[in-house]
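Give me structure tokens for this 96-residue protein.
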Amino acid sequence: MKDKQKRKKERTWAEAARMVLENFSDAPMTPKQILHVIQTKGLKEMRGTAPLACLVTMLHSQVRGDRVKNSIFFKLPGRMSLFTLKVQNHYSLKSL
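Here you go.
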């Protein structure tokens, strides 16, 4: 197996979403938009019948409860399902 294929196969939803928000977006994105880039760029091997549900579950679990302190993701308040990356103690809100 090629090294690049192995990395893609082993990549988590969180890693793939982070790559999208870091490299392919200059604004907050919805899970559907993030998934589209993941699929288009081949950032993660897709298995199962509900990849969007997996991505949404991961994102929402990262921005709620105990995980929110250590999460790299931030959900925009007052907005339905718009996510961006946290940048240290500030948020990456490049263009709202």
